[in-house]
Design brief:
98 residues; mainly alpha; 79% helix; elongated; 3 helices
């Protein structure tokens, strides 16, 4: 029963990430703080897949956990870099006299 509940968590998070992607597709043209909304459900999906892997103990579950965890870390790192670059650009443009 616990395996079914865990699989439900994984598939539910996957659907949420897909819907989030469709929701923010138009806002991807320029930087927006809302981009951070991608990292939270993706991390939740990675955590759910880790829980699933601990229950199932299969090779495929381990691969899924590794891939989703890696994507979650990469997305978070990319968002940190993009945010830092945009903040520094914004601060530099304000500090220069007009």
């Amino acid at each position: 029963m616990k395996k079914i509940i865990t699989w439900y968590k994984v598939t539910n998070c996957l659907c949420y990430v897909y819907k989030r992607q469709l929701l923010f597709k138009k806002s991807m043209k320029k930087f927006n703080v809302a981009w951070w909304a991608y990292s939270f459900p993706l991390t939740a999906l990675a955590l759910a897949s880790a829980e699933y892997e601990h229950e199932v103990k299969g090779v495929m579950a381990h691969v899924i956990m590794f891939v989703l965890s890696s994507v979650s870390v990469l997305v978070s790192l990319i968002l940190m870099v993009i945010t830092a670059l945009n903040i520094s650009k914004h601060v530099l443009s304000r500090s220069q006299p007009s």
